[in-house]
């Protein structure tokens, strides 16, 4: 929303504070409104955001995934929660950017983090859990965009047909617990280790989605993608895996573009979704053009 005053007031008035606090807005969020709060010598991140059904974001799921990610050693602890509010320990750190992710040494540190996410979070997850299947998301977004008379309505049949082709190319998958939103800012470096944060879209999925999302969101070169797959799966890369991975990478780009298209007509956050849609649609079309030539 353009006016963050109600969110700020809610963060300020939480019952967990020992005295008056002054929430400071944190920039960068495009799904939530976030604040940094200092109380009794400690700092916390307050995330304000309700369920977002058009994006299949359910806060009960974010809470469960956040707790499991902390137990797995990936994320900060959950300090407090109530409907529409999640309070986490603050990690003194620097968010990565695309260039940092592409750095070979940093990329080598990210792979174990992904393995930990995929394999350890299910050991700690409690209660009902969601599945994040990108092709279902794309089909649901298609319906939402049609209903909302999106400016992209005429393009939807083409995108849906491409998604069907990509889903067939992905084929049967291994199921792990995915982060499913590997934008660089969701990776933090505290100088000693990396952290993985923001579990809005956490859910069971193929590891290929996180691997493809990491590559597409951060502009990895082909040689780095091949290294990433061989390192993650600990086996030489073959043509079948490369083809399935490329299909999932295209799907991750398509989903990001359609996420923004839906946000253009439904989100109240102050963000240039139109530019983000155009940028990601162009990236998807380039990747899909390459995929068709594999």
TrEMBL record:
<dbReference type="GO" id="GO:0006646">
    <property type="term" value="P:phosphatidylethanolamine biosynthetic process"/>
</dbReference>
<dbReference type="GO" id="GO:0005737">
    <property type="term" value="C:cytoplasm"/>
</dbReference>
<dbReference type="GO" id="GO:0004305">
    <property type="term" value="F:ethanolamine kinase activity"/>
</dbReference>
<keyword id="KW-0808">Transferase</keyword>
<dbReference type="InterPro" id="IPR011009">
    <property type="entry name" value="Kinase-like_dom_sf"/>
</dbReference>
<protein>
    <submittedName>
        <fullName>Phosphotransferase</fullName>
    </submittedName>
</protein>
<dbReference type="Pfam" id="PF01633">
    <property type="entry name" value="Choline_kinase"/>
</dbReference>
């Amino acid at each position: 929303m353009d006016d963050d005053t109600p969110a700020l007031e809610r963060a300020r008035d939480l019952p967990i504070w020992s005295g008056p606090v002054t929430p400071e807005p944190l920039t960068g969020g495009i799904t939530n409104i976030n604040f940094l709060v200092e109380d009794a010598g400690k700092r916390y991140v307050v995330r304000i955001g309700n369920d977002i059904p058009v994006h299949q974001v359910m806060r009960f799921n974010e809470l469960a995934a956040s707790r499991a990610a902390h137990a797995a050693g990936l994320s900060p602890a959950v300090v407090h929660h109530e409907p529409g509010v999640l309070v986490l320990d603050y990690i003194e750190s620097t968010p990565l950017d695309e260039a940092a992710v592409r750095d070979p040494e940093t990329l080598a540190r990210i792979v174990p983090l992904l393995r930990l996410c995929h394999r350890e979070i299910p050991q700690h997850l409690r209660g009902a859990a969601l599945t994040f299947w990108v092709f279902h998301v794309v089909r649901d977004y298609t319906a939402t965009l049609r209903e909302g008379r999106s400016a992209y309505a005429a393009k939807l049949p083409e995108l849906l047909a491409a998604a069907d082709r990509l889903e067939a190319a992905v084929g049967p998958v291994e199921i792990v617990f995915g982060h499913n939103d590997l934008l660089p800012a969701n990776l933090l470096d505290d100088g000693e280790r990396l952290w993985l944060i923001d579990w809005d879209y956490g859910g069971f999925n193929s590891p290929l989605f996180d691997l493809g999302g990491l590559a597409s969101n951060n502009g990895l070169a082909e040689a780095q993608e091949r290294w990433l797959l061989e390192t993650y799966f600990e086996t030489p890369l073959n043509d079948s895996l490369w083809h399935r991975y490329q299909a999932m990478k295209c799907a991750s780009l398509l989903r990001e573009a359609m996420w923004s298209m839906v946000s253009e007509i439904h989100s109240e956050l102050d963000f240039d979704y139109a530019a983000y849609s155009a940028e990601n649609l162009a990236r998807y079309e380039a990747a899909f053009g390459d995929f068709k030539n594999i």
